[in-house]
Amino acid sequence: MLALPIVLVASACGGGSSGGGGSTPAGSGGGGQVVSIPIADSGFAFSITTATAKAGTVTLSAMNPQSTTHDISIKGNGVDEKGNQVSSGGTSTVTATLTPGTYEYYCSVPGHEQAGMKGTLTVT
Predict the structure, then answer these.
(1) What pTM was estimated for this model as a whole?
(2) 70: which of 20, 60, 61, 89 is 20 to 30 A away, CA to CA?
């Protein structure tokens, strides 16, 4: 019985749909929503520079295909949360309770945000 949850957790990490599918109604599960913002294959950049989410508990997820260490972090409107640093296929996540407004997601590794590794999250 213990092997099944491990398999389910592992399979939940793969196969992202790139749709902005934030149309899941509120209250359809207690975990909030996950917004996938992959890290680019090379350089100091995310694959997308704008994303949207509904207000509430939001998890940003960033898979890093690079050997260079990166993370995904979020700030703005009183929020300042940093994700775990990962490399070589790891996934960084950061979770925050967000109200409507504009936030910046970025890589908090020193120098990476300044090099352009950031984007805008609009919460409605």
Answers:
(1) 0.76
(2) 20
